[in-house]
Write a structure and sequence with these properties.
With 472 residues, the protein is mostly helical. It has one domain: Amino acid/polyamine transporter I, CATH 1.20.1740.10. It contains 15 helices and 3 strands. A 3-stranded antiparallel beta sheet has the order 1-2-3. Helix 3 packs antiparallel against helix 10, helix 5 packs across helix 13 and helix 8 crosses helix 15. The chain is globular, with a radius of gyration of 23 Å.
C-alpha cells in the first residue's frame, strides 16, 4: 500500500475555520455540479419515504385541509430555500461550504451550536427512517409473493430485522465514498428510482379509483366514531402535519448541495432554479400520490401507500424495489454531511495524526482504491449505530412525523428567514418584517403540534413492543 498525504484537503479545512477560504474550484476539489445534478440531489433527498405517507396524511386531514397543507408547505419551502441560497457566499465573496458555516458566519458560536445539533440529529434520524422504510418495502415484496402463491386470504408474515441488517451492510460499503462531490451518479440513479415508484404508486391508486373500487373519503378525513376518539383524531392530524413537513425537509443539506455547483453562473442563481425545478416536481408527485392514494385507499389508508396494493403483483414489486434502490442512494446524500463534519473537525484537532489524515492507495486491477483508516472505522460504526436504532424503534409514521416536527421549522423556516432579515437589515417595524415573522410563528406552532402528535404516537407504539422482534 502506498501512503499519500492530502495536503490540499488539510489546507481547505484551515480555510473553512478562518472563513476566508478561496473558491474550491481553485483549490483541491473542482466543482462540476449544474442545474440538473443539483435538482437530482434535491429530488433524491426530498422525494423519498415521505411520499409514501401522504395518502395516510390526507386520510387524517381530508380533501380540503390535506391539499391545502401540501400547497402551503411547498410554497413556504421554495421561498425560504431561495432565501438560504443567497447566503452561500459571505459579503467578502468567500463560499460557505456547509449550512452550519453559514449560521456561524452570521450569528456566532451559540446559534452555530444549536443549528449543528439540530441538523445532524435530523440527518441521523433520516438514516433511521430510510432503514425502516427499506425493510418495509422488502417485506412488502416478500408478502406480495406469498399472497400471489397462496391467495389473499393466506396468513403471510415476515421479519424486518434481517433486512435492516442487510441495508446496514450495503451502506457501510457505500459510505466509503470519500465526499459529496462523488455522489452525482448515485443521486441521478436514485432520483430516477424515486420518480419511478412515485409514478407507479400514483398510477396504481388512479387505476383503483377509476375502476370504482376506491375507499370511502370525506372533506374532513377519517371521522370520529367507534374506534377513534376526538383526542385520537387530533393527534393523528398533528402527526399528518409532521409527515407532510418531513416530505419537504431538504434545507438541511441545501448549502452542501450548492457547494457542488460551478462558480459560473453564480451558485445562488443556479440553486434557485434547482429549487424551483425540484419543488415543482416533488409537489406534483406529492399531489398525485396523496390525492390519488387517498381516493383509492380511503380514510383507512395505510402508513405506507404501497402496502395497500397487491395487484398486479409484478408492478407492485417493481415499485417496492425502486423504493429500496432510491433509499440506498438517499441514505448517502444525507449521511455525507455528517461524515464530512466529523472528519474535518478531527483533521483540525489532530493535523499530524496518520490514522486520521493518511490516505492509502490500493491497486485493484487497473483501478486504484483510496482508503483512510479513520474514515473506514468511524463511518462503519456510525452506520451500525443507525441500523441498531432502526431495529429498536421501527415506527414508520411516528418517526417521520417527529423528524418533520423537529427539523422543518428551525432549519427550513427560522434560520433562512433570520438570515434574510439580518443580511438585508430589514427594520422590525416594516410590513416585510411582520410578514416574515408571521410565517415564522405560524410554522413554529404547526411544528410544536406535530411534535406532540409524534411523541404521543411513539409512546403508544412502544407499549407492549419487544425490541428486535418487528414482524408483520
Amino acid at each position: 500500500m502506498e501512503e499519500v498525504r492530502d495536503r490540499d484537503q488539510n489546507t481547505q479545512v484551515e480555510g473553512i475555520e478562518s472563513g476566508l477560504e478561496a473558491d474550491k474550484s481553485q483549490n483541491s476539489i473542482k466543482r462540476t455540479g449544474n442545474l440538473w445534478t443539483a435538482s437530482a440531489h434535491i429530488i433524491t433527498a426530498v422525494l423519498g419515504s415521505g411520499v409514501l405517507s401522504l395518502a395516510w396524511g390526507m386520510a387524517q386531514l381530508g380533501w380540503i385541509a390535506g391539499a391545502t397543507t401540501l400547497v402551503v408547505f411547498s410554497a413556504v419551502t421554495l421561498y425560504t430555500s431561495n432565501l438560504l441560497a443567497d447566503c452561500y457566499r459571505t459579503p467578502t465573496g468567500a463560499p460557505c461550504h456547509t449550512y452550519t458555516q453559514v449560521i456561524k458566519n452570521n450569528f456566532g458560536e451559540a446559534m452555530y451550536g444549536m443549528c449543528a445539533t439540530v441538523q445532524y440529529a435530523i440527518l441521523g434520524g433520516l438514516l433511521v427512517g430510510y432503514t425502516i422504510t427499506t425493510s418495509l418495502s422488502i417485506v412488502a415484496i416478500e408478502k406480495s409473493e406469498c399472497f400471489r402463491i397462496k391467495g389473499h386470504e393466506a396468513v403471510c408474515r415476515a421479519s424486518h430485522i434481517e433486512y435492516m441488517i442487510g441495508m446496514g451492510i450495503v451502506e457501510v460499503l457505500l459510505s466509503q465514498i470519500p465526499n459529496f462531490d462523488k455522489l452525482s451518479f448515485l443521486s441521478l440513479f436514485a432520483a430516477v428510482m424515486s420518480l419511478a415508484y412515485s409514478s407507479i404508486g400514483a398510477g396504481l391508486a388512479f387505476a383503483k379509483f377509476v375502476s370504482g373500487k376506491g375507499g370511502g373519503t370525506s372533506l374532513g378525513g377519517i371521522e370520529i366514531g367507534i374506534g377513534l376518539s376526538p383526542s385520537q383524531k387530533m393527534w393523528r392530524v398533528f402527526r399528518a402535519f409532521g409527515n407532510i413537513a418531513f416530505a419537504y425537509s431538504y434545507s438541511i443539506i441545501l448549502i452542501e448541495i450548492q457547494d457542488t455547483l460551478k462558480a459560473t453562473p453564480p451558485e445562488n442563481v443556479v440553486m434557485k432554479r434547482a429549487n424551483a425545478v425540484a419543488v415543482a416536481t416533488t409537489t406534483a408527485f406529492y399531489m398525485m400520490c396523496g390525492c390519488f392514494g387517498y381516493a383509492a385507499l380511503g380514510n383507512h389508508a395505510p402508513g405506507n401507500m404501497l402496502t395497500g396494493f397487491y395487484e398486479p403483483f409484478w408492478l407492485v414489486n417493481v415499485a417496492n424495489a425502486c423504493v429500496v434502490a432510491h433509499l440506498v442512494g438517499a441514505y448517502q446524500v444525507c449521511a455525507q454531511p455528517i461524515f464530512k463534519a466529523v472528519e474535518q473537525r478531527s483533521r483540525r484537532r489532530f493535523p499530524k495524526s496518520k490514522f486520521i489524515n493518511a490516505e492509502y492507495s490500493i491497486g485493484i486491477g487497473k483501478h486504484k482504491l483510496t482508503i483512510n483508516l479513520f474514515r473506514l472505522i468511524w463511518r462503519t460504526m456510525f452506520v451500525a449505530l443507525a441500523t441498531l436504532v432502526s431495529m429498536i424503534i421501527p415506527f414508520f409514521n411516528d418517526i417521520l412525523a417527529l423528524l418533520g416536527a423537529v427539523g422543518y421549522w428551525p432549519l427550513t423556516v427560522f434560520f433562512p428567514i433570520e438570515l434574510y432579515i439580518t443580511t438585508n437589515k430589514i427594520p422590525w417595524h416594516t410590513w416585510r418584517w411582520l410578514g416574515l415573522q408571521t410565517i415564522n410563528v405560524t410554522c413554529l406552532l404547526v411544528a410544536l403540534a406535530a411534535g406532540c402528535g409524534a411523541v404521543e404516537g411513539l409512546s403508544r407504539g412502544l407499549k407492549g413492543y419487544t425490541p428486535f422482534k418487528f414482524v408483520e
